[in-house]
Structure formats: C-alpha cells, structure tokens
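Morning - N-(5'-phosphopyridoxyl)-D-alanine inputs below, output right after.
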Amino acid sequence: MSLVYLNGDYVERSCATVPVTDRGLLFADSTYEVIPVYGGEVFSAKQHLQRLQRNLDAIHIPNPLTESEWLSVFKHLAQQEPDSEQSIYVQITRGDYPQRTHQPPQPIKPNVIVFTTEINPMSPAMAEQGLHVMTLADKRWHRCDIKSTNLLANILALDEAKKYGADDVIFIRDGIAKEGASSNLLIVLQGLLITPPNDETVLPGITRDLVLKLAEKNDQPYAEKNICLDDLHQASEIWLTSSTREIVPVTRLDSQPVGDGKPGPYWRRMHQQYQTLKQGSH
Ligand code: PDD
C-alpha cells in the first residue's frame, strides 16, 4: 500500500488530490525536499529539515509542522517498505487561493504533500561505466540555492543532453562550472577535491556536505572554490552527488574521457566511505 501524507491525513495515493487553484500547481509557488531512507531509517533528516526551514523562510511560507511532527510523518511513511531504499518527497505549496493572482495573497494555509518512492541503488555495472555528461549554459534563475519546484530549465537541459546521448549535464555560468541538473559537482584536480562554494548559484547539497566531512575525516585535502572550464576539462575525476544517487562518477565529459575514462581511485575510496556511513545510520 502506498500512502501519501496530505495536510494531516494518510491517504491512498490515488485519493491524494489538491485543488486546481493550488499555487504550487499554477505558479510553482512552493518548495520541496528529497530525503533518503535506508533500512527503514531516514538518513540525515535534521540537515534536510534545516534546509527546508531555510527555504520556507526564503519564500515566506510558515513551516506547517514542528520538527518532531515532520520526523513522525517521515517515520510512518519510511516504515511502509523497510527492506528497500526509498526517498521521501516533501512539497509545501503556499496553498490554495481561488483567484489566480501573481501577487502572493495574505498568509493562507499551505498544502503539505509527503510520499515515498523507491530509489534504485547504483548497480556495479553502472558504477563501472560511470556517467556521460555534457556542459550546457546555465539558463536557470538567480536563486538556485532555493529548492524551488520550478525545474523547467533543469528538465529542458536534460532533454537537450539526451539528444546528444549524454546522461546528465553540468551547468556553466559565466565560464564557471556550477552543478548538475539535480546534483552537486565535485572534481579531483592534482589530488585536490574541489567543489563550488555555496552561494546563490548552487543548491547547498546535503550529500556534498557529507562528502566534505568524510574528506576531512580521512585527511583528503579539499577546497570550496570556483571550477573554471579548464579545471573541469583537466580534472582526473568528476563526481555528481545527490540524496538519491549518492556519489556518481562521470567518465565522459563532452564526449571526451575523464581521466582514463573509468571511475577513479578517489571516487572508489569516497564511495566506500559513504557506504560505511550509510550502514552506520541504521
Ligand atoms: N535534487 N543540486 C540540485 C540542483 C539538486 O536538485 C540536488 C538534489 C542537489 C543535491 O542535493 P542533495 O545532496 O541535498 O540531494 C544539488 C534532488 C535529489 C531532487 O530534485 O530529486
């Protein structure tokens, strides 16, 4: 049975509906979170809830639930399928307002939607193959640090990449590499792990932060600094990180091999450390 949490109730997915005048639907006037669940346990829940709070503050929507209420909703949904890897999807819209107006109405009751979907862990074959990624101009808005549900530019970029046989994209803004369509970017350049600094042009990724913590713990030198196109093309390794895909090695960039065209030793080590971290969480 696949339940959806909708505004305080657990309902069958097919019965979970919001009005057509919901502002999330009409204007993408909403924010979201995606949180992994391993062995029935929610992973890094506190960090995701902190980011959710920051996003709600940024778009002036009151947080409809307390931290303990959120955790109990997550727990309830996570335990539906304790044996598979899941992700919890949370969306909070500004709410339903009968008049279609761009002007945000005075505080109205937000709509809260939470459900789980299965995530398929990276197969060993996929890990060996890695991703084929292309660079594309970043046509997204100027607040990519806010987890907005307006993902049209990301979707169109992935569609464009597919035409060229690529699996994903790396967005380039003013000659600087930023992130993937739904992931953060890290590279290894002369043994140094580098990721763009958190600013308004990238999402502050929870997985990225965990990777940097693991790097620190394991004496892997790292830096948060801009990655120019030359750095990207000279990198011996490129990784994309996200809550649903963990750390994925990129083996081809713009049809050229990255390093020797195989997932590299830094990725292997970090991937292993990440698996150990996951195991320890449940
Ligand atoms: N996306 N950058 C973008 C643009 C993202 O959409 C995501 C995550 C990330 C990685 O963040 P995190 O490590 O906190 O998942 C970076 C989620 C998984 C999604 O949209 O489904």
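Note: Residues 34, 179, 182-184, 203, 205-208, 241-244 surround N-(5'-phosphopyridoxyl)-D-alanine (CB under 6 Å).

O.
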